[in-house]
Every structure is written in structure tokens, then in C-alpha cells.
Amino acid sequence: MAIKIDALELLEILRITPPEQNIMLIGKHGIGKSQIITQFYQKMKVVPFFLGQMSDPGDLIGLMHKDEKTGHSEFLPPYWWPTDNKAIVLFLDELNRARPEILQSVQDLTLNKTLAGKKLPKGSIVISAVNEGEEYQLTDLDPALVSRFNLYEFAPTVEDWLLWANDNGIDGRIISFIQKNNCGHKGSHEPQKELGKQLKSFT
User: What are phi and psi of 5, to 5 degrees?
Assistant: First the structure.
């Protein structure tokens, strides 16, 4: 079962979770998951993958190449593979929209930080994000894969948004409106669900 957290709690979880443990964030699309992770790990290389848009596992794990001189096949690492032996953060977004063959590659990655037999540098971190909502075409994730993650339901609060808005130069009139009217909307914000009623609830 996922633990429900807000933005401040997420930052604390990122700070205290050891690299050996993987993190899975469950939440709506567009609520700031990737932005928070990128900003938090400013001193590390963050490699984002949008797995729902990936058609070839080679983009994630690299490709096999036959050496014409020796006749042997060898593994060619993917473009993002760290050649300086420095730890990285792999952010696997849209994990539950990934193709089955890509999910198979993720299995080894989450278990022992290896891809195609090559091990990530010590201290590397794996974080995944799962978008929830009826508008998504979702893949049922293997329970064995899910069990390799610490599960968190990420649900930013109005206070989280106001802090972000003040730090990012959002128009003061918008901030003031949200402060005064944040309890005015009830129900889902998902698209194609009584959109007219949703818009009227803000007027």
C-alpha cells in the first residue's frame, strides 16, 4: 500500500532514502514529480526516461554489436551510460505505460542496479513515476516488480503550490485567487469529465 505524501514530505524522503532502495511515486499527470526530482538532485546527473513513449528497449539498455574482426558479440552501452563512474539518478517516468519488453529490462535494473550485465556506479538511484487516472492506457505491473519499490502516493497540497508559485514568479493575482478560492472546486480535475461543470465551479 502506498503512503500518501505532499511535496515537503517527498523532499524529506528523497533526502533520507538510501540508494539501495528504489522509490515509486504514484500520482496525477502534471503535478510536478519530475521537476521536484530534477531540482533536488542538482549535483547529480538525472537521466529521465518517458517509458510510455519508448518503443525500443535498446534506448534504455543499449545494443549488442558483432565485432567483425573477432566474430564476437559485445554490449554497446546506451548514450546515457556514465563513463566517468559517477553515480546517477535514473527517473523512469510513466512506468505503468511501458511495453512489456521494456518492463522486463527494468526488472534487473531495480533488483541489482544492472542493465545487460553492466552495473551502475555505486550510489546510483532509481526512481519511477506512475500516472494514475482513467484517461491513461495502463499496463498491469508485475507484483514482483512493484515489490522492489517503496511506494508513495504523491498529492501536493495548495500550500505546496503557493510556495512554488511565490518562488517561480507566478502573477500575484493568480496566487491571491488561489489563496481565497482553493476550496471552491469539488470533484475530479481529469480531462473529459464534466468539463463545463468544472470550469463553472471556478467562476
Answer: -135, 155
In tens, the pLDDT along 19-63 reads 999 999 998 877 788 888 988 998 899 999 988 888 777 778 777
**CA 22 to mean position of chain CA atoms:** 11
Kindly calculate the radius of gyration of the chain based on its CA atoms and give it in whole angstroms: 20
Contact residues for 17 (Cβ-Cβ < 8 A; gap 6+):
23, 150
The three three-digit cell numbers of residue 108, written as one number: 534487473
What would the pLDDT profile of 130-149 be if each residue is shown by its tens digit?
A: 887 655 555 678 888 999 99
In angstroms, the CA 160 to CA 148 distance is 28
Domains in the chain: ranges and CATH: 3-156 (3.40.50.300), 157-203 (no CATH)
The answer to whether 149 and 143 have CB atoms below 8 angstroms apart is: no
